[in-house]
Amino acid sequence: MTNEWGIQEPKQGIPTEPEKIDLVLVPLLAFDKLGHRVGYGKGYYDKFLKTCKPACQKIGLSLFEAEEKIEGTNHQDVPLTKCITPTGVIQF
Fold it and tell me: What is the pTM of this model?
């Protein structure tokens, strides 16, 4: 099934409450050395990640290495706990 944003989703399954999720893989365009990220989500991931429990691992997936600093981040942005790149795993 295709959702309102054109993303394929399963037709069946059991929804899980966000506060029960232990790990979220976050696609992104760029990230910095503090774990801030930029993507295509228009704030969707930030809104979702705020509903997850504080101990939830937020792991970015990037084809590139970290930028020094991403400008324009604010208190609404939820930083990553780790990021996987082609050369390794970075922990924040």
Answer: 0.84
